[in-house]
Specification:
Strand content: under 5%
Order of helices and strands: HHHHH
Number of strands: 0
Shape: elongated
Distance between the termini: 52 Å
Amino acid sequence: MSLKKINTVLAAAFVLFVLWFGTEFILSPETTAPGFGLPNWPSGDGGGFLIVKGIRDVVLALVLGVLLVTGNRRALGWALLVGALAAYGDMTTVLAHHGSVATALGVHGLTGTLMVVNGLLLLHETRKVTTAPAVPAPTV
């Protein structure tokens, strides 16, 4: 399988996964939130932040999807690298609030790392190889 096909499959998987997960946070945060890794359900109006997280995930998925569908593979690589910061931020949030270390590392950390790998592979795939200009041979 070519690098381009591997990158496309990985990127499409991220788009679908993040879109699904974000939609779940919007539609039923009370059933989705326990899988996020935090130890306690938000009190008061704090549950609204779970919907904000879902919206963030859906928007990220749509941006990645548009770049994938339109063939902007270099921009897709950069977007995956930047989007990985959201996953690492989620990991840090779970760890900072005494949540599940396994979920922080195994879900959020792994997702961020796979996004970085996919982003770097896309940037590698789309790099422009330049050759040094030919130097004329000295005349004697």
